[in-house]
Sequence to fold (655 residues):
Amino acid sequence: MARALVLKAERIDTAVATLEGVRVRVDWPPRADAGELEVRARRVFAPELGYRFEAVSWRCALRRDDNDGWRCEGRVDSRGHASAHLSLALDTVSTDAELAQADARLTLRRNAASPDITDIDLRRVPVAWVQALVSRAWPDGRLGGGVIDAGLRIDAPADRPLRVSGPLQLAALSLDTADGSIAAEGVRARVDLDARFGAAPRIEAGGHLDGGELLFGTTYIALGRRRAALELVAEQDADGGWRLPHWRWDDGGVVQAQGSADVAGDASLRGLHARFRSDDLRRFGEAYLSGWLGMAGLAELQLAGRAEGEVTIDDGALAEASVALAGNDGEGAAIDDPKGRFAFAGLRGDIRYSAAAEVGSELRWNGGELYGLHFGAARLPFLSSEGALRMPATSMPMLGGEVRFDHLQIRPPTAGQGLDVRFGLGLDSLDIGQLSAALEWPAFTGALSGRIPMARYADDRLDFEGGLDMQLFEGRVAVSELSMERPFGVAPTLTADIAMDGLDLEALTGVFGFGSITGRLHGRIDGLRLVDWAPVAFDAELHTEKTRGVRQRISQRAVQDLSSVGDASFVTSLQGQLIGLFDDFGYARIGIACRLADEVCEMDGLGSAGRGFIVVQGSGIPRLSVVGYNRRVHWPTLVERLGAIGSGDVAPVVE
Fold:
């Protein structure tokens, strides 16, 4: 007759885990070498490690071993988890267990002489197996792919907190958070862990990461195939946050950093003190700054030189910061935008920021470019206090004249507020000829001067108060209501109003190769809007005004060019044969208007002429007038015709 033993217990407590609703049954047939063991538990949980299992059952073949101990092997099941194979060896000296699932192995060993200590070996264990342990320290962390190899010791004395220590190796690790603010992909690591749990958990870790990608908010780190050393000490607060009294990161010659930190329970940064150094800004920018630069539309920015500095954050706000720049070859650091928007060469010195007491610093450069416009050496003295970086008046040479900063104030981003930059700008006698050559414009001549008493950059938008005056073609061009969106980002947008007063038409048409017209031009371009430096909207009106001592004549070439632009919609009052008899004609007024929207110009002129509008009102004998009839002109086609005339691709034809 078979013998059976049944044991029931409402609760069993061990040093590592607690079992509830336990039922143990042993069946042993008479004179048999083995029996059957069945263990069921309503719930198994290890609160210090974060594990919890429901409806656990294990059935195995129970037998004696050669050391008068017991062995049992069989399948173990738990609700919501895949089945695994559990083997147990138990004698008076030790307890050994192995849990296997596919290629993964978890082995456990306990010695009766040291009952508080459990040794665990992990071999090719999926990181998902340790999700509960990770969640204990980091509730928002979600482990994805990857495997773990480890040799851990669990020390669970009754009078001290649980301690887990030992080496871990991670391969192909991936993880993230629900909001995507923290992530890792393809990371290999070797870490020595020493973690103490209980009322005040403390974790010490040291080792290295081999390759992979990491994301912390906007900071994207691409390790490639490099090895980076890591040290970390973390202590959990009562509110679930973590204090890091010490951390160190060493990515070879790319960057070395160390310091302390304070992270809130929601993973926001409450405090930070960091010292950093990079001996290769090119590699540092590629490996660590791509996220920040990409947000600013500067993903391809190239850096060169060396940098070192410190950053301090208190109560979630920047308290102090400093960075010092130098070159590797004695020529200073450099910044270059491959898209040609800006460049700085020979950067030296430092910049210091303070949210409290005043600190001073100075930055210098040898020269640079802004959208192809060269500027010379400059020395920028800075003072910082009360959360702002300020620069007194300073100037630098540019385009044969001078650019002057009357004042500058920079406020870094704070809670609820983004970057805020304010400055006053003056331009004195900049050579428009050099400006035109740099921007590949027609060969304008003149001088550019003006003053913008206040400009503000915030929310990726640059607004100017005041205006710019240009002395151009013996007249004046005034720019007002100037603003820019995404000035260094994707599809920069510029808006402005432009007023023109007394421009010499003979010089202007000569530059554009548009026949010859004498007189003085006046007008306005309101609501000008450029997207990626191409006009998409404006309301323009240009006209001549009679000026004492200035002749008003229009050449036959100019008349023919007007007709070419109008594509037969501009009609002259004289036959082609008569036009060919005269070199030029007198006129009383010239006027044209265009309102651009959706790539269509709504055209107008000096007034109506039947179904058309007058562009040139003749004067004298022969009297020549030009009338337009097409009030809706396709803007890209119009620009193409103007370009063809300017390049000489359209020759006047006189019958």
